[in-house]
Design goal:
Layout lengths: L5 H9 L2 H4 L8 E2 L5 H25 L5 H14 L4 E7 L2 E2 L2 E2 L4 E7 L6 E6 L6 H14 L3 E6 L7 E8 L2 E4 L1
Parallel strand pairs: 1-9, 6-7
Antiparallel strand pairs: 2-5, 3-4, 5-6, 7-8, 8-9
Helix pairs in contact: 3-4
C-alpha cells in the first residue's frame, strides 16, 4: 500500500474536471477530416496488421491470456514479412529530457508511413482505461497509427484503429 501525504490527497480532491480536462486525451474525430491521399496510406499500412490479427483470432479464438495472443500475433507478423518489435520500450521526455521510466507497448510494427502501435487485450469489453492507455501511447511517441485489439470477445476480435497527427486523434 502506497502512503500519500494528506496535502496531496486534499489538493486532488479539490480539483474539478475543468482543472484536469487538458490532461485527458481528447475524443477522437472521424477520419474524414484527414486529406484523402494520407488517409489511404494509413488505411493501407494497417491492412497487413489487421490481416494478421484476424488470422490469430481465427486459429486461437477467445478465452486465452493476453500474452498468448501477443506472441502468436508477433509470429504471424514475422511470417507475413512485417518488422515487429515485441514489448517495445519508449522513454517519454519531460522538459526536453528523456525519463528513465518507460512506456511498454505490446507490439510496434515498422511501416512506410511510420510505426504502428498494436495494443492487445483479452477482456470481455474495452473500457475508457484501455482507450486512454492507447491514446497516451500515441501522444507520447507521436507514432501515426495505433491498433487496439481485444481478443476476449466471443464472435470476433474487436479491432479499433486510431491515427494521431498534429496533436489531433482520429478514428478510422
Amino acid at each position: 500500500m502506497r502512503i500519500v501525504p494528506a496535502i496531496i490527497v486534499r489538493a486532488e480532491r479539490d480539483k474539478t474536471i475543468e482543472d484536469v480536462r487538458d490532461m485527458l486525451p481528447q475524443k477522437p474525430e472521424r477520419m474524414e477530416s484527414v486529406e484523402e491521399p494520407k488517409k489511404s496510406e494509413l488505411v493501407k499500412a494497417s491492412y497487413d496488421v489487421i490481416g494478421c490479427i484476424l488470422e490469430v483470432y481465427k486459429q486461437l479464438g477467445a478465452g486465452l491470456p493476453e500474452y498468448i495472443y501477443q506472441e502468436a500475433l508477433a509470429k504471424q507478423m514475422v511470417k507475413q514479412g512485417l518488422k515487429v518489435h515485441k514489448e517495445f520500450q519508449f522513454h517519454p521526455t519531460f522538459n526536453g529530457e528523456p525519463l528513465e521510466a518507460y512506456l511498454k507497448m505490446d507490439l510496434v510494427v515498422e511501416s512506410p508511413v511510420g510505426n504502428i502501435i498494436v495494443e492487445c487485450k483479452a477482456i470481455t469489453q474495452l473500457s475508457e482505461r484501455e482507450h486512454y492507455q492507447t491514446f497516451g501511447y500515441l501522444r507520447a511517441t507521436k507514432f501515426p497509427i495505433a491498433i487496439l485489439v481485444n481478443f476476449g470477445t466471443e464472435r470476433r476480435a474487436q479491432i479499433e484503429r486510431y491515427h494521431y497527427s498534429n496533436g489531433k486523434l482520429y478514428v478510422f
